[in-house]
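Hey, resending since the last one bounced:
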Amino acid sequence: MLDYDLRSTPTGGNPTTGRLVVTTGPRDAFAGANPVAFGQTMYNGANALPVATIFKDLIDGNVVRYGQRTGTGSSTVTTTEAPAVTIPRAMQPGQTVKLTRRSTSVSSASTTSLNVTEDLTYVGRETLQSPVGTFSTCRFASVITTTPDQGSAFVTSATTWIAAEGPYRGQMLKTYVPTEGNRVETTSEVTRMTYAPQ
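The structure tokens again:
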């Protein structure tokens, strides 16, 4: 189980905080596969709000993400990635992988699809001073281009720091998103974390 608080600070704005709990569930049939289901729950004080179940697996040294399910009952939305997003666990500094897929979301009311291309670069190791301590991290840079069937493409860039060792190994500690279009420059940092890997 992963339990953490995240503080997001937009440039010129006030910080917002939230708590997210990720629980490793059983394997479940999804998108023609049998991946592990990771339940994500947000907390507003003592109130729990299940926000998503992410379906992914570790296959031949790659993290494979099949999609996610959000909502409940008639408001359920199922999003699948075709092909599934496959990220090598062992990347070399400077290596870039291109992740191209068609993301399709299906609800009881509609079906929408997007073409997504992501350039993910492993920049290298970097020491990060964070609210939960000082860590050796793996720094990644991503550029995601999303193109709807109707409308213009939009681009999102981000830099992410992942703990490379210690008790939080493999977990995100910080994300930086620059100003792009109508999006405001934002830095998000984990301020508290409890992690019990399974």
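The radius of gyration is 17 Å.

Sorry for the duplicate.
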